[in-house]
Specification:
With 366 residues, the protein is an alpha/beta fold. It folds into three domains: 139 residues, D-Maltodextrin-Binding Protein, domain 2 (3-Layer(aba) Sandwich), CATH 3.40.190; 130 residues, D-Maltodextrin-Binding Protein, domain 2 (3-Layer(aba) Sandwich); 76 residues, no CATH class. It has 13 helices and twelve strands. β11 and β12 form a beta hairpin.
Length: 366
Amino acid sequence: MAYSTPAEANKAIIAAWQKTGNGTGVTFQTSYGASGDQSRSVANGQKADYVHFSLTPDVTRLVEKGLVASDWDSGPHKGIISTTTVAIAVRPGNPLGIKGWDDLIKPGVKIVTPNPSSSGSARWNILAVWGHGRYLPGGSEQKADDFLLKVLKNTVALPGSGRDATTAFNGGTGDVLLSYENEAIFARQKNESSLGYVVPSDTLLIENPGAVTKQGGEKAKQWGEYVLTEPAQQIYAQFGFRPLTGTAPAGIKGVNTPSDPFPAIDHLFTIDKEFGGWTGSEQEILRRRRPRDQTPCSGGQVMTVVAEPRAARPSGEGDEPEPRPASPRRGRRVVAAGRGLTAGSRLGLGVAVLWFSIWCSFRWPW
């Protein structure tokens, strides 16, 4: 069971492992989808011997369910099996001249990013944007809040997963796509003229965990060891991931600069260093000033009501009681209920619901 974007890379690594002594004769049944959805599926009874998710909380959920050992992240790479960065995909030729995060808040820029209620990619994107306002010299939590809100105002689509977001962007939605760097590279490998991509001078290191479940046998453990070897990491690199070990191989297709496929980044944030781990990062994002006008939503949660077009404020400080969270489906009905509004007001309401979804997904990573 895995999140959506490494499907092709994992397929190639499986083929390579099956040629080794440990992998000979081993067959795989695979499933790929939005990371949070995949994790919840396993937690709810879907059998899996090995999981590969976008972010650590999706494995933590299985530890809490007793499905993965508590020491799953005790190895030298702390359970991480693939890495990439948050990047900005742009239209061919970069017609808007996008160079970094600040360009995303310009008037008229239309952004596509996955939905944080289901997608691990979306949560990485949100943290990268927030980190731009917080962790550069002169940054602050208030600047980070304000900057993230400006980016969300320009967001026009929330597909279910990182791969769905790429499909929507390639289909013509939006001007820019917040994406995994490897996903942008893979899209260019399939069709070099489909898009370009920019890795900002400050961005977030994406660390994707993998774990053997308690039902996984010896072969699952051997597979978990193999994906960390240099041959496997070289295959990940061929598909746009930054390798954990060794140097990137020559001839990677789809990258901006073949001679330097994964250039060094001036300010590379990490979850552990800047955000204090996943619990810390959730607290950072949710530490908000309480908005003036709030209306309780189903389940006792609070959603900011937006009166002016294209405006919204972040809701909640993360210290509310533990009510039952509303479902993403219920949020979609709120958007549908706004069809009688003007186009600007509908977008404003949509941004409010987006904030509600983000708040829910970080407060209750269900």
